[in-house]
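Late entry, written up from scratch paper. The run itself happened at the end of the previous shift, but nothing got recorded in the book at the time, so transcribing now.
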Amino acid sequence: MTTMTDPPQESFRLSMLLNDTRYRSYTFQFIALIVLIASAAFLMSNLFSNLAAAGLNISYQFLGTPAGYDINQTLIDYSSQSTNARAALVGILNTLLVAFLACVTATIFGVIAGVLRLSNNWLVSKLMSFYVEIFRNIPVLIWIIIIFTIMIAVLPGPRAFRGDEPAASMVFDAIAFTNRGVYIPAPVWGAGSLLVVATFLLSIVGVIAYRRYATKLLYDTGRLLPMGWPSLAILFVPTLLVYFIMGMPIGLDYPVLKGFNFSGGIKVGGPLIALWFALSIYTGAFIAENVRAGIQAISKGQSEAAGALGLRQGRIMNLVVLPQALRVIIPPLISQYLNITKNSSLAIAVGYADVTATLGGITLNQTGRAIECVLLLMLFYLTISLCISAVMNVYNNSVKLKER
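Output as recorded:
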């Protein structure tokens, strides 16, 4: 009677690290890691040696000293006597503000242009093609300067509103358009306003829940619930009820011309508007191409089958085409959001105080701490880019095709 035995195990030898395919890739990776660490150590050693020879050292104590300069638009309290750290924080918040606004509006422009570019209407399709080709092939810096120059040249100064002459650039006596920026009413928060805001946020959650329920019901049973007016009712009716029950706790502070400028309200500076709009229309042209490619990646049979079931074109686009196209659109869309965040560093061209203008510009020049400021800038942009990628990748995983 014979027995089956396992083949003898080959003993490990150092030569197997290069000759055996099971270990060769790990060997090369380990060598590359050692070379990378050695190169980084050499560069750091060279940096510290040069700093020591120049009598310098890396120190971040300058962040606690007074900044000594003003910033034209801030989201938090700031004065020239505030620290360099607070000036950097103001710049970071300004960067995040323009990046968020540009991402939202660029997405809106891109989706609309991408869908309309596939329209059967020849004129609409060609207009959208003209928009895409013009805006994406001219550098965004030029668009920033063009829009800012137009605002300065076309819009009147605040003193033009003085006297009994009609204010041509005033809208509803509430919004003032000037060459210094746009002045809009500011909310005045009273007792109970927090409850109104909380109700509005819960209403948004309710709208999302209702639309998901309606979509699931359509897929499961074929029953089509209305989307438009129920969503508006859920969004506004509870908030308005709480608003009036609490005695209208939220008011508006309107801008009023006093002296040579407006007081009250909120000033949206011209540099912010120019940067925001330029980033939006420029990146929107790229997003439009992503949307067009995503829609064309869906088989025409999907649309024809939905049309055979009696669905209107709008329903076909919202319920059949776009949900599948998102799997193609989202990955390149992440790159466009990252480009918006990084392109916001061009704000210094129009005097908008983003983090590059404050920390990487004025603070760097005044303190002479170039290495420290540049390292902090690199850390900020790396962190915000990784955060955007992480959030968008979570959403991308939620819409991707689930394999069984």
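The mean pLDDT is 83.
(Scratch paper discarded after transcription.)
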